[in-house]
Amino acid sequence: MGSFDIWWEGGCWEWDVAAGICLLQEAGGLVTTANPPEDLATAAIEDVRLGSRLYLAIRPAGPSATETGRQSQERVVREVWKRVRHLEYSRPGA
């Protein structure tokens, strides 16, 4: 049995990830874009666009004494974004 805390991927098609995204979001996880924005510190962390082919998933997290579960997830997203390169995946014909 295995598990992941973070999953960063590019190039998958929506039919490869749709069910997993649904399950993760229903469980309280966060799924956003794999590509870091221009301003890491202040950019809004939005829900993933399913057809984007760029995915960063963070497991559900409970609150701590200093932050909510969502704040913890967003902090992890920003830390991942600091460390990854920009991925280039597009849709054929787009």
UniProtKB/TrEMBL annotation:
Name any Gene Ontology BP term. Answer: phosphatidylinositol phosphate biosynthetic process
Show the InterPro entries listed in the entry: Inositol_monophosphatase-like (IPR000760), Inositol_monophosphatase_CS (IPR020550)
Please give one Pfam family short name: Inositol_P
PROSITE patterns in the record, alphabetically? Answer: IMP_2 (PS00630)
Instruction: Say which family it is in.
Output: Belongs to the inositol monophosphatase superfamily.
Listed name of the protein:
Inositol monophosphatase
Q: What organism is listed for this UniProt entry?
A: Aureobasidium vineae
